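Final report, section 2: Outcomes. Of the targets proposed, HD superfamily phosphohydrolase is the one most frequently requested by collaborating groups, and we therefore present its record in full.
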Amino acid sequence: MKYIDKIYGEFEITGVIEELINTRVFQRLKGIHQGGAIFLVNPEINHTRFEHSIGVMLLIKKLRGSSEEQIAGLIHDISHTAFSHLIDYVLEIEEEDYHEKRFEEVLRDNELNAVLKKYQLDINKFIEIENYQILEYPLPNLSADRIDYTLRDLFQIGKITRKEILWFLSGLKIVDNRIVLISEEHAKWFQSKYEFLVAEYFGGKQNKGVNILMKKIVKDCLTKGIIQEEDFYQDDFYLIDKINRSVNLKKMISEINSLKIENEKITQKKRKIDPEILVDNRVLKLSEIS
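The predicted structure is given below as tokens.
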């Protein structure tokens, strides 16, 4: 199949990757917004976990990662729940890893497993997703997942251009099976963009406001039995429909600016980036050379 990605361009996708994309469990990600609840107040921020997951796979492919690591990149978010990290805010999970705790369970989906078995791939290889260092490498380092959501989110909100993205991608290099940059200029650019993303987008007034409001609504609905935790295993639209049976969600969202939520808090993961750079055949962190 032909797939056109907003930031990486056009690709022909075949074989195991195409079949995995077509499974029900992966298609569900089309209904889960990458930015969580922010699309309710800003419909233009409507990119999904589906787009991000394929994007991570394509980035790993561009970096010449193995076929196995491309598959890992594709499926790394299949256990994300409705509204992405909203359930973490509701349950006060600071590491925002609720979806990670469900990963193995979702990974054992029968249809997904049938595809992997068809291609003689062992599902157990993908359980420890952090073993794939191009895909996942601990903060404050770079990883394909971290790079894709940063570029994709900032592009979606109009803070970077595709020309800037292509320039940055030209500065990526694989050393010892992890992503590093070829210049201090590339590292400083990404660090500044990542800091903006965390402070002004993740922690911005609009994003925090709608997530605080949705946290209050969801907690109330859970308490009253209107929704159950398992409803988060569906998608955004399923959860909205259940909430709307007893709460006028659209009306509450339209009145968000008048609601007293200033003193409310949401627990968000602390994120800081310190990219590694290849300097005279040595890998150094940006903080070590600047």
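The chain has one domain: 2-289.
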